[in-house]
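Hey, resending since the last one bounced:
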Amino acid sequence: MFSFFRRKAAAPAPAPVPTPQPAPASSAPAPAPEVPAPATSPSPAPQTPAPAAPAPAPAPAPARQGWLDRLKSGLRKTGASIATVFTGAQIDDTLYEELETALLMADTGVKATEHLL
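The structure tokens again:
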């Protein structure tokens, strides 16, 4: 009745479809093509490549943070950005007018807009 936490039975694997085997065209193997031997010619001495600069050491992987540490750092960022909104802004006439227009356009009503501003 309640099978929420039970493992589901593995689905049976589908039966493989038999493929027809192609009949051999001939019973004698085909001869391999002959490759002529390359002529030996004096070759210049092999050039050794210049030693490559050592690869820079990879940056150490940052330590994996726990859930609580990630939560704290995220809240710290959010708190800092909210603090700049409320502490550093001076409300002048243009900002006041923009806020009033935005509230009225959001259909909050005249009374609510006057109360908020």
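The chain has a mean pLDDT of 71.

Sorry for the duplicate.
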